[in-house]
Amino acid sequence: MSALSFSQPYVAPLPPVAAADRFTRRMIHLYVFLLIFEGAIRKWILPGLATPLLLVRDPLVLLIIASYWQAGRRLINIYTLPLLVAGILSLLLTLAFAHGNVVIAVFGLRTLVLHFFLIFIIGEVFDRKEVERVGRYVVYLLPLITVLIGLQFYSPQSAWVNRGVGGDVEGAGFSGAMGYFRPSGTFSFTNGLTTFYGLAVAYVFYFWGEPSRINRLTLLAGTVSVIAAIPLSISRGYLFQVGLTVFFFVVASLRSGRSIRTLLIALVASPLLIAILSNFGFIQTGVEVLTTRFALAAKSEGGLEGTLGERFLGGLIQAFSSGDTPWYGQGLGLGTNVGSTILTGGRTFLVAEGEWNRVAGEMGPILGIIVILLRIVLAGQMMLAGIGALFRNNSLPFLLLSFGFLQVLQGGWSQPTALGFSVLSGGLIIASFNRP
Description:
Helix content: 55-70%
Distance between the termini: 10 Å
Radius of gyration: 21 Å
Number of strands: 2
Low-confidence stretches: 7-15
Structural class: mainly alpha
Order of helices and strands: HHHHHHHEEHHHHHHHHHHH
Number of helices: 18
Number of domains: 1
Largest sheet: 2 strands, antiparallel
Strand content: under 5%
């Protein structure tokens, strides 16, 4: 199944443009590199340029769009067109009735529209081979980043390894439990680390189902890394993501006898590997910290039900039912970190923390719900196509959906790293239908 088959209702077949596609693919790989290491550059390498480097991927996105368009491919489809129209209308309403700040409004339009095109560009110029290549790249990095977060976990926030964006000596860690902070890895903030490992664990399980696609020792090292990262990251979201990917892996493994054997091996090997790792003191401490964080969060959020409802439903029902927002919204870009920094001098949630609430709050109930429904339809189409591909012995899109479905559906676009992983995962899912 090709990306054209996935997007057949809204993209007409176009002639091959191999040379242009090769250039575009190289730029997309550079985008992935910057997505993973942008925070490291802003924290440790060029801290004095931390603010402009926040948008370091934007010129690259413009270059990718330009090369894609110059090759004769179409950028407008039934998803990009309504999003673009809604964004422009919201921009005009923001300037006319809402906060009226041009810089914040333009940044909000950029957040809403610019990177979204990448979902379909990646889905068109990548194929399954390129998607696997990105996966191997991610798995290769896992041991290094896991060692890094181990150092960050056990180091004080004043240590160089925990230096914040712009060389902030107060550290980049976020409150965890028992005096330990959630590490940020190579990212500016901890949410980047969580989304990176979410994508990585989806790839690790895929390669266990297709071990011929990667070096076995590399896969084993990656597996140890994603397990060790559960306590070291002190991230409940990542633990839930691992559980979700395990569920998808079990479903995918039921499609053939060979896959069932792989599943049985994984069911035997995983507890053994966890038992071995739990004997190490640095892992035991991480487990204790993570358990404590769960207990504290359960007390404040009302147990597991409250945690799941708040973190994964994210107030989505309220986005449709809230009557406090004017019809034109509070203003495009107001819910982003840049918007809050310009208006208040610090980072705070001026609109809402949940993504759907933020979108509806910024754009108003009419335009906001159009954008929300668009993301629902896109994520739903991906899921249906992924299930169909699974019955054709292509488990890659289905396993990637264990991470990418929620990212496309409600990934936090107001934060640049989360936006990057949202569009990347969406593009990889579509591209994984393409035969090499």
